[in-house]
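Dear Dr. L.,

I hope this message finds you well. Following up on our conversation about the binding site, I have prepared a predicted three-dimensional model of the protein together with cobalamin. For your records, I am including the exact sequence and ligand specification that went into the calculation, followed by the structure tokens. Please feel free to forward this to your student if that is useful.
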Amino acid sequence: MDLLSRFQIAIIDGDADRAAAVAEEITAGAEADPDAIISSLSGAMEAVGEKYETGEYFIPEMLRSAEAVEKALSLLDPYLFERRRDISGVIVIGTVKGDIHNIGKNIIVSALRASGYKVHDLGVNVPAARFAATVNEVNADLLLLSAFTTSTRQALIEVLQALEDAGLRGRVKVVSGGAAHSEELAREVGVDAFASDVKSTLAACRELLGS
Ligand code: B12
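The resulting structure of the complex is given below.
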């Protein structure tokens, strides 16, 4: 079985030690393609989500798979994204209130930092007021909102309202993304752009910053 298939199975099984061992093998090999690694990791979490939907997995199993991803990602991180220093911009990012999913967000944070952006990661379950306060404090160019469950619609609206109330909406562009989040939802709540993966996120940031 090839390395990436073994990687996926270790994640689906929620075996962090095995996922880390395969990650080490991947970094040792010359053929590690970053896009293939990320899509195999996403595919594995997709399968975990399906097992949850069909009642085969419950929260503890999802959490074990998430831990396996986190351990593997900490080893893979230096190999995943091209290091660039020619892009500049200040970005605030976080997962909105009521939502604690962070794997996808953390991948985006790594990709942005590797690209040269200064990133302030506020973590998960972030209240609207904290996003607005940090945007103001660090004079952010972009605010990236991670939203995974569909029930985060209201939380997204609250962040945009908090920016508006603080007089910041005109000076910061907002991008949203995350599993179970859609272009339609993004348009409905009024963010400036929606992105569904690393590539489209980096493209949206470059476009909005004109860089
Ligand atoms: C792992 C997981 C969990 C873990 C999270 C652990 C962690 N540390 O993150 C735990 C167990 C905690 C969890 C809890 C719950 N979960 Co959950 N979870 C998942 C699962 C299986 C994988 C998500 C993941 O990490 N994917 C891998 C990453 C790499 O992919 P990604 O997140 O899509 O990220 C990519 C893009 O979206 C994008 N991106 C991500 N973030 C951002 C941010 C920005 C700004 C941008 C631009 C782009 C971007 O780039 C990333 C890289 O390509 C998904 C299933 C799925 N198919 O996604 C369900 C899923 C998201 N969960 C779901 C649900 C329902 C829940 C719970 C409500 C379950 C419950 N009954 O309690 C709770 C919610 C808790 C809460 N308040 O948030 C549903 C959401 C359904 C919906 N439409 O609302 C899903 C879709 C599962 C399902 N099919 O039912 N979950």
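In brief: The chain has a mean pLDDT of 93.

With kind regards,
A. P.
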